[in-house]
Amino acid sequence: MFQSMKNMLFDADKRKYAVMAINCVNMEQAMAIISAAQEEHSPVIINISPRQMKTHGTPEIIAPMVAKMAEGVNVPVALNLDHGQEYDDVIRVIKAGFTSVMIDASACEYEENINRTRLIASIAHENGLSVEGELGHVGSAVEGDSEKLDLYTNPEQAKDFVQRTNIDCLAVAIGTAHGNYPHNMTPRLDFQRLKELKDILQMPLVLHGGSGAGEENIKRAVACGINKINVCTDLFQCGRKAMVEAAAEKLEIDYMDFQIAGQNAMKLFIKDYMRMIGSSGKYYFESSRTREFD
């Protein structure tokens, strides 16, 4: 089923689990993601960032491909623009057939963030898409941004932000960052801040920088109110590792088998992650009618 993030995240918020939002740039990754979701009876979100869509997975090709794959499964599948910053990128994915967008104006001054986010929310909602905004700023792991407290989300400010922008979910900064953390480093998350945000906002919250954050942190974040977790770096590394090993084992490996090695490894990674964050088993179907596990 091809749909927006809104209903699946509302359900995740209600039943206290999280949905994976997985970056994807090609058919093999899309197949790994959607087949894992089907086998785990789990909703899933497919992400693509502006850089990724401009260098590899163009929206006009990715959107119909994902939509067609989603038609063949009985779990919710959303296609989301990840960290959209430019107006033209948002309009492009809306026209291409995406079901959701993230508008990331978190690097802007507060009022400018509100103005940009409110505009995109209005346009997206008019076209039937759900919208994610970001307050605070989830920066780069290599820059040490995860420990910069001035970038963290302010709970009281977040309430004003949500009310004035009409977004459907909010990405919060509580101690994670994008990319690879320094060797042997596990970020320290501000769970008290997360609890305050959840209590005040009572809406789906999003954790960016899920890669490398550690299983204990991820599970606790879900328990404290995170309902969407973005995963890119860990998945890409998993696929790459499997493909390198396949090539090392058999130098003459066929290109198709080379791609399938990465696809299969990513699928297993995704299934394990879905179980960890509680989305596995949340949807099953009988006679083409949706039912939910208790």
> Which structural class should the secondary elements be placed in?
alpha/beta
CATH class wording: Alpha Beta
Overall mean pLDDT stands at: 90
* Helix run count: 11
Q: What radius of gyration results from the CA coordinates?
A: 18 Å
In order across it, which strands form the biggest sheet?
A: 1-2-3-4-5-6-7-8
Question: How many distinct beta strands?
Answer: 10
Strand-and-helix sequence, N→C?
HEHEHHEHEHEHEHEHEHHEE
- Content of β-strand: 15-25%
Largest sheet: 8 strands, parallel, barrel
Instruction: Give the termini distance in whole angstroms.
Output: 21 Å
* Count of distinct structural domains: 1
The CATH topology assignment is TIM Barrel
- Reported CATH architecture: Alpha-Beta Barrel
Give the overall silhouette: globular
**Can you tell me the residue ranges where pLDDT is under 50 for at least 5 consecutive residues?**
144-148, 286-294
Portion of residues within helices: 40-55%
Name of the CATH superfamily: Aldolase class I
